[in-house]
Amino acid sequence: MKRVVVLNVVGLTRSVIGEHTPRIRAFVESGQLSSFKPAFPAVTCTAQSSYVTGLSEAGHGVVANGWYDREAAEVKFWKQSNHIVQGEKIWEVLRRDLPGFTCAKLFWWYNMYSTADWTITPRPMYPADGRKVFDVYTQPMGMREEVKADLGAFPFPTFWGPNASIPCSEWIAESAKWVEAKHEPTLSLVYLPHLDYGLQKYGPGASEMDAELEAIDRVVGDLIDYFEQRDVEVVLLSEYGISRVDKPVHLNRLFREKGWITIKEELGTEMLDCGASRVFAVADHQVAHVYLNDQSLLEEVQQLLMETDGVEEVRLGSEAFGKNGKGHERAGDLVAVSDENAWFTYYYWLDDAVAPDFARCVDIHRKPGYDPVELFLDPEIAAPKLKIGSFLLKKKLGFRALLDVIPLDASLVKGSHGRDQVSEDEQPIFVTRERHEALGGAEDVFSRICALVKARELGEK
């Protein structure tokens, strides 16, 4: 039975393939590369949901990496249940059509409670004493201890934050080999996030990116060799390209100056009260969902956004998604798209002295928006390693402590993504050794993978 592995190399585009990616370049030159219009917004959760369902954003409902839950009156970011993604998934379709089909889904998002046969996803434990214990979640559950026994603990600090680096992608790659050796899935979906870190931190074209490109090229090249030696068809895929940015845009601060934001003071810090605010934005890279609890302000808010420096476009949420301009209930009433060189922060405070405590921490679930500044250590801290060491010692001794090492300087970020109107060099790519039908958009990834698996399985090639 011919089988397929999809290597989702985040941030991989035509513009970064070259001198520092010789093994990826050799794979591309031996086959066919198709670039295609990214999902909207061009972010991980939305793109992957389009890939695994073949639906537009209006169909699968994943309108960003996070959004405002109007019923709970809470912003929810980076949730993990696969039930969030609406529509039938690629492994369900192929399993129905091809008896004996199996699928491994490794670190692709929305991976908990998936109907895929084998899954691994990052999932810390949060004991009642306030600790955060790094771990993974697997299906079947017993696989969790087996894979950790063989590969060691997943290097969670390198998956996100100031220490984000190649070890997490190396571990994910080894887990893909581990699952392949034990189970031989028909389809393996493998997520390799490494390029995303450097491209956001340093920006595309920065000299620091040379080493980052070489690192992911080594990991990808090794996986290509491994799977092809086992007669598994390799697909290289990406989700978006990164644009160089130099202009953070603080929409919530603009709304606060208008008197539309409600702030709740907590222990000397300011907390955004979404449910009580008339207008607020949930920022996600270069796209921001703007929610209105007071619909009478719609035209005024729309006009303010259109006049704001750094905003290129404002779409009605009811018409923002899908080929036919459909909407989804999770979307904002308005959806702002930034200029190519700009991106949106979640910042709502006007004085850093009263910023919430989580603002200076790596805290992806508590922040009401995505925060790429979490990739940096605060340059104002004289001895960051000493501060981190002190924090770890306090935690080990059982004391409460705050790892507040993240700066509040959005100008540090040099790369971002999310726009769907980008040059071909910054579009996501789909690469196979064999020729394939070109893709028009993110939804087409689903049909291309299905066609490849079915043709291989049915002996049509």
From TrEMBL:
Q: Which CDD domains match?
A: Enpp
InterPro entries hit by this protein: Alkaline_phosphatase_core_sf, Phosphodiest/P_Trfase, Phosphonoacetate_hydro_insert
Protein name stated in the entry:
Alkaline phosphatase family protein
